[in-house]
Amino acid sequence: MPPVSDLIEIALIADLHGNLPATEALDADLRQRGIRHIYCLGDVVGKGPSSAETFDWAFSRCEVLVQGNWDSGIGKKLFPNDQFYYDQLGPERMKKLCEMPLEHSLILSGRRIRLFHGRPVLRRLLAPNDESTLLSPLFDPDYQVVGYADIHKQGLRMINGRGILFNTGAVGNGLGLNMVQYALLRGSLTRADAPLDISFVTLPYDQERAIRDAENTKALPKWHLYKRELETGIYSR
User: Which residues pair with 116 in a beta bridge?
Assistant: First the structure.
């Protein structure tokens, strides 16, 4: 085994989506675990009523942030019905959303790892259980591990001849299981023969408070659909 000082543990989070109670539960869990390295795989804003707060948390706590489709759409003002988010975030935050990179890569335990949100890198949503012919190109040119977000459900799959594909799930808009969802990577910074651990975390948060936050923010676009997703864990749009 590599020396303890050579090991690194990284929390991979995504899809905070303006859900402050979920983000606060995540923060408490990360602090309790003593995790210092946090990578955010996008969609820190949109959907929920507290985008400014989740944006500020992500930019203060995460050493890597990649751009998600909501970050891009809101930052570039692509949708006129999203004026609520534009007003809440303000020009400085909006500018930072547009400056986030689309993906990030690293080497851990000798494996080349690719991390991105999903869209806008992908043209459409791809789930880990989709056809392998659709998923295999995500490993090009020479990645052995691919991690992404966007579909709001955790999952892991071996793609024959390519490597491991996994999805982090969502912090603030978990589907299938409406809890805070994120992933952990643990491996060696220098040794190619060291183990690489990929694990999933789920934890409860104050859903009733999150629902009240949405109900009390009637200017929030499609707040009733967001509320339904929090109540059911089923996609409503």
Answer: 103
